């Protein structure tokens, strides 16, 4: 596997799905069929926070992700967060996500608590965690969506 890229986006839209699609577009992963995995970073795979994904392959292919996504009808604000911590020796690492109609500070706190809890379950020695939180706000009559995703490598054919 090549690199895991952390991307993020936020948007509003006339429907919940339109807002989510626009947030995915802001992150550069709107043209893929996202397949969610839980939270383990394979050993010796670098994680890079890039904001917007580069071209990861043809439209319609499968893209493996760990995703924090928040969506809600306005008037409201939503926050989505994703954190990661890697082993100090190049071993495996962890992702944790948190979302909600809460502020970014609360989401970041919950992500860090999740990473700490996950690290406590494992006998791996971890470095310092990194957290990215994205926020979106919507007025009455529109929807807000925020997404932070870790895209594993390149897309793959789905059929």
Automatic annotation (TrEMBL):
PANTHER family: PYRUVOYL-DEPENDENT ARGININE DECARBOXYLASE. GO terms for molecular function: arginine decarboxylase activity. This is arginine decarboxylase. Belongs to the PdaD family. The keyword Mitochondrion does not apply. InterPro entries: Pyr-dep_his/arg-deCO2ase, Pyr-dep_his/arg-deCO2ase_sand, Pyruvoyl-dep_arg_deCO2ase. Its EC number is 4.1.1.19. Transmembrane segments: none annotated. Its cofactor is pyruvate. Coiled coil: none annotated. The keyword Electron transport does not apply. It catalyses: L-arginine + H(+) = agmatine + CO2. Keywords: Decarboxylase, Lyase, Pyruvate. It comes from the Archaea.
């Amino acid at each position: 596997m090549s690199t895991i890229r952390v991307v993020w986006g936020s948007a509003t839209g006339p429907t919940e799905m339109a807002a989510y699609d626009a947030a995915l577009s802001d992150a550069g992963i709107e043209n893929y069929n996202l397949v969610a995995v839980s939270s383990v970073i394979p050993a010796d795979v670098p994680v890079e926070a890039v904001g917007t994904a580069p071209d990861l392959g043809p439209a319609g292919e499968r893209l493996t992700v760990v995703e924090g996504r928040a969506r809600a009808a306005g008037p409201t604000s939503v926050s989505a967060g994703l954190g990661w911590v890697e082993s100090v020796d190049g071993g495996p690492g962890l992702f944790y996500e948190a979302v909600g109609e809460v502020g970014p500070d609360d989401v970041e706190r919950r992500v860090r608590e999740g990473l700490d809890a996950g690290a406590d379950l494992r006998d791996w020695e971890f470095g310092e965690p990194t957290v990215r939180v994205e926020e979106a706000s919507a007025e009455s009559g529109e929807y807000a969506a925020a997404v932070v995703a870790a895209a594993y490598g390149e897309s793959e054919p789905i059929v």
